[in-house]
Design goal:
Helices cover about 25% and strands about 35% of the residues. By secondary structure, it is α+β, with helices and mostly antiparallel strands.
Length: about 200
């Protein structure tokens, strides 16, 4: 049973690592248009203006939505080539922040992540892995891991969360440059996680 837990966790981190490599290929600009469709039959993510008074966008993925700060958007071209369900970035700057969501079949519980997550992340090159307090994401209790990934000499901090719904796990990765303050990371995570909705 251990292998069945570790594989999805490691696969999700590998997707995050692949995104770092894809940063150099990001298009010159971002916009509120949807990412181009991949070969799968799942809906493509879109960013639409929020009807609330607060500025920002609502990003919709496969069975969920969440808010991002003003100026963030789904790139006009998907830099992950369909590797993730949703990719949204702060800017076209390859050193900028981004959010990705990987949908994994099966349930990864907080206990699974707490038992195996750090080792799984370290196995794919993450360092300084720490286990933070659990959080609630739209009624789903989630573990929270923080780790550092290195790419071409630059370090990126990732905050990773695991929300579950309908026998699927939604691995939410928030990536920030290494010099991002803890307060800025917390504010961004709060914007995403407090607005997360199913459906």
């Amino acid at each position: 049973m251990t292998r069945s837990r570790i594989v999805p966790i490691a696969a999700a981190l590998i997707s995050a690592a692949l995104l770092l490599a894809a940063c150099d290929a990001r298009p010159g600009g971002t916009g509120g248009s949807s990412a181009p469709g991949s070969a799968s039959a799942t809906p493509t993510p879109t960013a639409t203006s929020s009807s609330d008074a607060a500025p920002g966008e609502t990003v919709r993925g496969t069975g969920y939505s969440f808010a991002v700060p003003a100026g963030w958007a789904v790139p006009a071209e998907d830099p992950t080539d369909g590797q993730v369900d949703v990719f949204v970035s702060e800017s076209a700057d390859p050193d900028g922040r981004y959010i990705s969501v990987v949908v994994s079949p099966g349930v990864i519980t907080p206990a699974d992540v707490e038992a195996d997550g750090a080792a799984s992340l370290e196995a794919v090159g993450a360092t300084n892995v720490s286990l933070e307090d659990r959080v609630d994401i739209a009624g789903s209790e989630s573990a929270h891991l923080v780790a550092t990934l290195a790419q071409d000499g630059a370090e990126t901090l990732i905050d990773q969360y695991y929300a579950t719904q309908d026998e699927q796990t939604f691995v939410i990765t928030i990536a920030s440059p290494a010099d991002t303050t803890d307060d800025d990371r917390r504010r961004l995570a709060d914007t995403v996680l407090s607005s997360w909705a199913w459906g």
